[in-house]
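re the bet — no i am not wrong, look at it urself. input seq straight from the record:
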Amino acid sequence: MIPKIHAKGHSFRGVAQYVLHDKDRADTDDRVAWFETRNLATDDANVAWRVMAATAMNQDLLKEAAGIKKTGRKSSAHVLHYTLSWHADEAEGLTRDEMLRAVEGSLEALGRSPTDDREGQLASEHQALIVCHNDEPQPHVHVIVNRVHPEHGVMLPRQTTGLPCPVGQSGTKRNAATCSASSG
């Protein structure tokens, strides 16, 4: 598995339009094999990204309701988008369950501190939209994470070093959710 973290974004609509539709064809979605949501009260992908955007827009209200001060550096980069890809040779036999286990492992890894044993805020606690594409020889899933926590409004940390497998290096086993922390 090869993870690739894309530049942080500001638009859930923009990234959703990209992953939920065919390239250069906003009216078709032939390349979407399947999708799932996490920490959202809907299984409709088009509703999911709108809920994620609304959560991000209401960050200050969420913080206030949770009794958290509105201090700290402000950021409008609420969108975390990354891709997990497998080699084309692994396409045959790679199951949806295996891909979802890898996604779950990556969501658990994001937010962990690479320098100590304490757990930080985990991406697995945040809203996420997972979209599998079938338009390339290599199997791959896109994961869109709302960096704003849906309960207390605190942002997922900026660092993306929580994915132990650096971009461009793959794990040794197809079923491995993430590479070992010592790789790379």
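see?? The two ends are 14 Å apart (CA to CA). told u. also The CA atoms of residues 40 and 51 lie 8 Å apart. so pay up
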